[in-house]
Write a structure and sequence with these properties.
The chain is an alpha+beta fold. It folds into 2 domains: 205 residues, no CATH class; 193 residues, no CATH class. Helix content is 53%, strand content 20%. It has 13 helices and 10 strands. A 6-stranded mixed β-barrel has the order 2-3-8-5-7-6. β2 and β3 form a beta hairpin.
């Protein structure tokens, strides 16, 4: 985009030793500022990606990628429907479930909960609840024994532990000679799980699907099927394909609809953080304005000589655009390299710092995620690098334009 001599002069001004060392110092600080801003932006965005990944995996370890339910009531004959769903090449497995609201009581403590009935033989196909068990095992849910698995916080609030009993109050009432009474069933705690998400740890109770059918009087029916896919990000598309294959007879929802508000909030937070940290890069980039203005002032006589030799205003502008662009590119590349190095080693650097200073940034007693995760994505790196380069280029335009407007007579008057 530049003629050869403009490029050569611009590069010479960039690497030449200036008479004014203060200008060189300002140029260096501008470059370092851009590099630090880009490094910080890439690292923070990568850490936020890591936390989003951890939360998504923990949520979907208990929830499902998609659910299939009846259009107007309990789902009958789920076995054939599960077999039909599993014929889709991107469906890894399907499992039935029963889900309803209820209350658990113990020793005067009452908590509203989500009761989920699962099949211990089918559930591992669609969730990882067995891996989240800190006490007991999924096989402890045997039909007819009315055992229950509780979230850790729910068990603490009820004062329950493995082997103790809790009372389930179902929303469906029963008619007796004494009047209408709520359905109640005593359950034995067979295990405690910790998913790392308050929605499940404080309000989810898991029982055997056969026991749930008896408590909620569903007969052989179930609330629906939970489906696990090979790629969770394809859930909306696969759900639409399954709905078309079933002829619209069933209601399908994917995880992006179940947790839309939560993941939308994470996305907004990430966007706001990107904007805030971009302002740091912008401040460093626009330090180039003061740097180049001082360079233009220092080089007024050189500019005047070039103009008298026939250089056009656009040539002078190009020379200083080259100089500012080189500084911006150098700072951006250094920042990208530092950001990539830091983002890919956060998970090892943070534990080392914690060990050296004997501190804990995310105490496991307070936070569900006690390690600092990181997930560097190349599209984020490209976006950050592009923004930094564009800001640096914009910062060079005014000083370069000002240099191109210098009149040779005025510049050489006092020489």
């Amino acid at each position: 985009m530049f003629a050869p001599y403009e490029l050569c002069v611009g590069l010479r001004y960039t690497r030449a030793k200036r008479r004014n060392h203060f200008i060189s110092f300002i140029s260096l600080t501008s470059m370092i500022g851009i590099a630090l801003g880009v490094t910080a932006l890439i690292t923070v965005i990568s850490v936020m990606n890591g936390f989003e990944r951890e939360l998504r995996e923990r949520i979907l370890g208990i929830a499902s990628h998609a659910t299939i339910s009846g259009a107007d009531g309990p789902l009958e004959g789920w076995e054939s429907l599960a077999a039909a769903a599993e014929t889709h090449p991107e469906v890894m497995g399907a499992a039935p479930f029963v889900e309803s609201q209820g209350m658990l009581t113990r020793a005067g403590q009452v908590r509203g909960v989500l009761i989920r009935g699962v099949s211990p033989s089918h559930e591992p196909r669609v969730s990882e609840i067995g891996q989240y068990l800190v006490e007991g095992e999924l096989g402890g849910l045997a039909p007819g024994r009315f055992n229950v698995l509780l979230g850790r916080d729910l068990a603490l609030r009820l004062g329950a532990s493995v082997g103790t009993s809790v009372t389930l109050v179902a929303p469906r009432a029963q008619i007796t000679p004494a009047g209408v009474l709520p359905r109640m069933r005593r359950l034995t705690v067979a295990g405690i799980f910790e998913a790392g998400h308050a929605q499940y740890d404080t309000a989810l109770a898991v029982i055997h699907i056969g026991d749930a059918q008896r408590v909620f009087r569903l007969g052989r029916g179930v609330s629906g099927l939970r489906v696990k896919l090979t790629d969770m990000f394809d859930a909306p598309r696969v759900s639409r394909e399954l709905a078309r294959s079933f002829g619209g007879a069933y209601w399908l929802r994917d995880w992006t609809q179940h947790h839309a508000n939560f993941f939308r909030a994470l996305k907004i937070e990430k966007t706001v953080m990107f904007v805030i940290l971009t302002l740091i890069v912008a401040v460093a980039a626009f330090n180039l304005v003061s740097t180049l203005i001082m360079v233009v002032t220092d080089k007024e006589s050189d500019i005047a000589i070039l103009r008298t030799l026939g250089a056009s205003q656009s040539s002078i502008l190009s020379i200083f655009v080259v100089q500012g662009t080189v500084i911006g590119i150098a700072g951006t590349l250094a920042g990208v390299a530092g950001g990539i190095a830091l983002a890919t080693h956060v998970e090892t650097l943070v534990p080392a710092i914690e060990s050296f200073f004997d501190v804990s940034f995310l105490s496991p007693e307070v936070y569900y995620i006690s390690a600092v995760p990181s997930e560097m994505r190349w599209r984020d790196v490209n976006a950050v690098g592009s923004v930094a380069f564009v800001l640096s280029l914009l910062a060079t335009l005014y000083p370069a334009w000002r240099a191109s407007r210098i009149q040779p007579v005025e510049a050489l008057r006092h020489e």
